[in-house]
Design goal:
Layout: E1 6-10, E2 22-29, H1 32-44, E3 49-52, E4 58-60, E5 65-72, E6 77-80, E7 83-87, H2 92-101, E8 104-105, H3 117-123, E9 126-127, E10 130-131, E11 136-143, E12 148-153, E13 159-160, E14 163-164, E15 172-179, E16 181-182, H4 185-202, E17 209-212, H5 230-235, H6 240-246, E18 253-254, E19 257-259, E20 266-269, H7 275-293, E21 302-304
Parallel strand pairs: 2-5, 3-5, 4-21
Antiparallel strand pairs: 1-2, 6-7, 7-15, 8-16, 9-10, 11-12, 11-15, 13-14, 17-20, 18-19, 19-20
The structure holds flavin-adenine dinucleotide.
Flavin-adenine dinucleotide binds near residues 53, 54, 57, 72 and 302.
Length: about 300
């Protein structure tokens, strides 16, 4: 089947912020062949391209994106003992849920993380001190310059806190294999429920947002004379939500965007916000935090079309 190429497709509906203008071209893909065809199409038009997973960590500009947005809609997940294969387009929570039903432990923490496997691998999504890379076995990638498909073994990958080789390299993630640990099924389910309960307690779930806007800055990035609570020294990172709260920006509103009262790192599209509203709120939070703490917050969210 030839790929379907849509022109001027509104992107807001493909993001959890529900914000943003159209893509010049938008191509949903269901297979690796489709992806290669979509990348070739972008090259033939001399346009940049970008992959969109669940759009749960992305802010699209009000003007949209003047390139090709490729959306991987292959949701394949398959199991071979403790080894799990998931297409980059697979929904992360679905993979985790299916693993837990089989008593496969390792990513129970990720059930409450929306988006796709591709997005989680690129951003090394994580929570509660755990992250995606701890369970990764290998990653199937496409090299866009040569259209070569190959497997990257775990020891060829580099990653860090919300960071991976894929943030510094044009490789396209096609799929990932995860290695889980078989444990008692009931224990696995309990783990998932405990993590989910902790997440619900601290985060405004079900709202139009993109999760945490900022990465948590490392304790060593603060000037020496800034006083911080002792527990942050043990954890090494200072929660960005706490910093935003300290500069009294919880509940702050600009246009239709507001900072959550429940979690200072969650910026919400509360009332038909524009991307410009969100960017103003982000700028304000960065300025205030810098003035008070001497640290520059770095975005975890991805900007598209700015
Ligand atoms: C309510 C809520 C709670 C959240 N909680 C958490 C949390 O606890 N922990 C956490 O880490 N994050 C959290 N997030 C953020 C988000 O869910 C994660 O970052 C998620 O992994 C993003 O996946 P996605 O598919 O939506 O990525 P997208 O937003 O679609 O894309 C993100 C980036 O990945 C790139 N990308 C996507 N697919 C591919 C691919 N196949 N190849 C190459 N690049 C690709 C995109 O180009 C983009 O640069 C939360 C978000 C929300 C809305």
């Amino acid at each position: 089947m030839p790929i379907s190429i849509r022109e001027n497709e509104p992107l807001a509906r493909y993001t959890t912020f529900k914000i943003g203008g159209p893509a010049r071209f938008f191509i949903p893909t269901k297979s690796e062949e489709d992806i290669i065809e979509a990348v070739r199409f972008a090259a033939s038009q001399n346009l940049p391209y970008i992959f969109l997973g669940g759009g749960t960590n992305t802010l699209v500009s009000d003007e949209g994106y003047r390139g090709v947005v490729i959306r991987n809609e292959d949701r394949t997940v398959s199991f071979n003992g403790p080894l799990v294969y998931a297409s980059a387009g697979a929904i992360l929570a679905v993979m985790v849920h299916e693993a837990v039903q089989r008593g496969l432990s390792g990513m129970e923490w990720a059930f409450g993380v929306p988006g796709t496997v591709g997005g989680a691998v690129r951003g090394n999504a994580g929570a509660f001190g755990l992250s995606t890379y701890e369970s990764i076995y290998r990653v199937r990638v496409l090299q866009p310059d040569s259209y070569r498909v190959r497997m990257l073994d775990r020891d060829e990958l580099t990653w860090g806190y919300r960071d991976s080789i894929f943030k510094h390299n044009p490789l396209i993630i096609l799929a990932a294999e995860f290695m889980f640990t078989p444990i008692d099924i009931e224990q696995c389910k309990t783990n998932l429920e405990l993590y989910l309960a902790r997440k619900k307690e601290s985060q405004p779930l079900g709202k139009e947002c993109a999760g945490c806007v900022f990465k948590n800055p490392h304790i060593q990035s603060f000037p020496k004379d800034v006083s911080l609570p002792i527990e942050f020294f043990q954890k090494e990172y200072v929660p960005a939500g706490w910093l935003v709260e300290q500069v009294n920006l919880k509940h702050h509103v600009i246009g239709g965007a507001t900072i959550s009262g429940k979690h200072g790192n969650f910026f919400l599209n509360a009332n038909h916000a524009t991307a410009a509203d969100v960017v103003q709120l982000i700028t304000l939070a960065k300025e205030r935090v810098y003035e008070k703490f001497g640290v520059t917050l770095e975005e975890e969210i991805v900007y598209l079309g700015f």
